[in-house]
Amino acid sequence: MLALACGxxxxxxxxxxxxxxxxxxxxxxxxxxxxxxxxxxxxxxxxDGGSEGVDDTTTTGEPPLGTxxxxxxxxxxxxxxxxxxxxxxxxxxxxxxxGVPNLSDQDQDDNVMVLAKALVCVRLDDGALCDEVRASxxxxxxxxxxxxxxxxxRELLAYVVAADLVGLSDADDAMFRAWLADxxxxxxxxxxxxxxxxxxxxxxxxxxxxxxxAVAVYLGDQAEMDRCADVFHGxxxxxxxxxxxxxxxxxxxxxxxxxxxxxxxxxxxxxxxxDGVLPDDQRRGGPFAWPPPQExxxxxxxxxxxxxxxxxxxxxxDVWNWEDQAxxxxxLWLDQQASYPAAGDDTWQMHLVNHYYGTTLPAPxxxxxxxxxxxxxxxxxxxxx
Length: 385
Hints:
There is one protein chain. Helix content is about 45%, strand content about 0%. The protein has about 375 residues and is mainly alpha-helical. It has one domain (about 75-380): Glycosyltransferase, CATH 1.50.10.100. Helix 2 crosses helix 3, helix 3 (about 110-125) runs parallel beside helix 5 (about 150-165) and helix 4 (about 125-140) runs antiparallel to helix 5 (about 150-165). The longest helix has 19 residues, at about 295-315. The protein is globular.
């Protein structure tokens, strides 16, 4: 695990203050198909580790100097302002009473509330608030029981990032780590977080992947990090790295014999521009049609995808450029072809897009938090250096 300025998991509690819509209808495995090599991957699709002959800029050691932390480092938080509309909203949420964590409730927002408390307690060195965050993190364990992997994928990420920020006592950290190592393999209605990530090329899989990679970084599991990177690279379109997904209707795939998570650069269907489409979520709006349906599942899938990208980027992967800047192309297609700007709990994504790509896509000064992450209007409002 990365050694943070304070609160590094695995040590004593030395951290600061140490005193949209319901995406529920995609039943896993229903109506799926694959291309001619849809179940092949360089290596075995069910084993960990990278693949030979793949152009990947992964670093196996620590990330570049000054970027520690799963999502954001203590140093980066301390450099952020304590004024402005985004800070005021973050502070107001952080000062609300504690909720009751429930990882089996895919619509609960306690996860991003706990993250807000973690960011504020670090920035203000508020011991009582940090203790509240630690209590919430521990209370979240085992609440996944009775839920589905969609709920666990949405909910878990923010708790892992919060724990990374505030730090846990030795005893609590040992318990949290043991639970994390097990929970990604826990059977929830026939699926685990890992199998969901590796099988479902839509919102289920992207949310699962974001929580999975956060757990891998927290546990310092390099093989698991590498595997997450390979699966994500494959979802973006590099089928030589990973192609083990089970796709649904192929209506929006520009090359149905070689389905991907994001259509490749220059892709067309019936002469129309589908470069950047997420076919397995756009299909929720029905067969190919033009003008394209404004399908909210696409933005929800991108919530998980962009979260994976941030975490992997901080581990040294060149994710923002993978597959001809596939993520950027996805957001540009929504903006330019579908005329469909982010709204509601998807608006936090746009601050990340503008931060990392230097774009000026619409992003409200105060963005709503999402299903798995948020507060980027404060953490990522400035362009990346």
